[in-house]
Amino acid sequence: MGGCEGSRWRLPNSEREETTSEPQAPLLDRQSAHWKNAVGFWLLGLCNNFSYVVMLSAAHDILRHERASGNQSHVDPSPMPIPHNSSSRFDCNSVSTAAVLLADILPTLLIKLLAPLGLHLLPYSPRVLLSGVCSAGSFVLVAFSHSVSISLCGVVLASISSGLGEVTFLSLTAFYPRAVISWWSSGTGGAGLLGALSYLGLTQAGLSPQHTLLSMLGIPALLLASYFLLLTSPESQDPGGEDEADTGARQPLIGTETSELKPGSSWNLSLQERWTVFKGLLCYIIPLVLVYFAEYFINQGLTNDQHREFAMAAACISDTLGISLSGVLALPLHDFLCSLP
User: Fold this and answer.
1) CA of 211: how far to CAs of 57, 141, 208, 223, in Å?
2) Hey, which of 28, 104, 284, 323 has its CA 20 to 30 A from 73?
3) Of the candidates 124, 133, 175, 193, which has an alpha carbon nearest to the alpha carbon of residue 157?
C-alpha cells in the first residue's frame, strides 16, 4: 500500500501537467464562449439600431435638401431649401420631420405585430441576412435618391432591418445566458450615441450627406459577421445562468423539458397561452409606451433662437421629475404587489 501510494506522487512532470490542465480546458472554453457571445450581442445591438438612428439624424437633410438634377455622384454643394411656411416664427419644413420618424417606425411596428403569427417559420439565419441586406439598401437608396419620396423608401428599408433584427435577436437571447440581454441593451444604447455622433461628425467635417451614408455600409457587414462568425451555437448554451446558485434558483425553468428546446420550438403555443403571456407583460409594456411616446414626441420641438438657451436648461427637469415620481409611486406599489397572495 505504501509503495503504491508513494508511486502516485512520482508521476513524471509531463503527466502531472496534463492531469492538472485537463479540467481547465472546459473552463477556458466556457469563458471564451461567454465573451464571444457578450461581444457578439453588443455588436448586434449596435448594428441593428444604427441605420434607424442615422435616418432620424439625417431627417433634416432628407426633407430639406434636394439633389442636383441629373447628378448622381455628389450632393449639390449649395442645396436649395424646399419652400417652407414663412409665416411661422419657427424653422419649418414643408414636410414635418415626423414623416421620417413614421417611415422609420411604422414598418417596425407592423413586423412586431405580425411576428407572432408566422415569423418563426423563417429560420434565424435568413432573417439576419435579410436584415443586413435591408440595412445596406437603406444607406444606398437614401444616398443616391433625388426625391423625398425615394429617400423615405430608403428609411422604410432601415425600419424593416431594425424591426426584423430586434425581433430576431431578442428571441435568440432565450437560448443564451441571461447576461447577453444586458450586452444587447448596451449595444442599442451605443447605437443611439454613435449613430448620431458619426453622422453629425462626418457632415460637420465637410463630408456630404451622400458620402457619409455610403461610408456607413460597413455597419451591415459587421452585423452579419457578428452573427455568423462571432456567436457560438445556441444549442450548446445553458440559458439558466453562469453559476451554480443561479442555476439552482432557475431549476424549474431549465428542467429536462426546457433543456431540449431548440430555437423556434417555443412558438408552438396556443393563442390562449400567448394571450395569457402578453397580459402578464402589460405592466411593463404600458410604462415603456409612455416613455417612448414622450421621448420621440419632443423631437418635433421647434429647437426659437432667442429662447433656445433657456428652453434647453428648463427642459432638463423632465427626466429628473419623472424618475422622482416613479420612485415615490413605486414604494406603495411594491408593498401592494408583495401583499398579493
Assistant:
1) 15, 12, 5, 21
2) 104
3) 133
pLDDT at 164 over 80: yes
Class of CATH domain 32-67+93-240? mainly alpha
DSSP secondary structure of 239-294: TT-SSHHHHHHTGGGSSHHHHT--TTGGG---HHHHHHHHHHHHHHHHHHHHHHHH
The rounded Cα 190 to chain-centroid distance in angstroms is 9
Question: Where along the chain do its domains lie?
Answer: 32-67+93-240
For residue 279, what is its C-alpha cell? 397580459
Contact 74, 143 (CB under 8 A): no
Which letter, b or e, does each residue of 161-195 get, where b requires 16 or more Cβ atoms within 10 Å of its Cβ? Answer: bbbbbbbbbebbbebbbeebbebbeebbebbbebb
According to DSSP, residue 130 is labeled H
Q: 3-class SS at 147?
A: coil
Kindly calculate the radius of gyration of the chain based on its CA atoms and give it in whole angstroms.
26
The residue among 106, 234, 92, 263 whose CA lies nearest residue 176 is: 234
Distance between CA atoms of 121 and 192, rounded to whole angstroms?
Answer: 31
- pLDDT tens-place string over residues 282-328: 888 888 888 878 777 766 555 666 676 566 666 667 767 776 777 78
The grid coordinates of residue 256 equal: 429536462
Judge if pTM exceeds 0.70: no
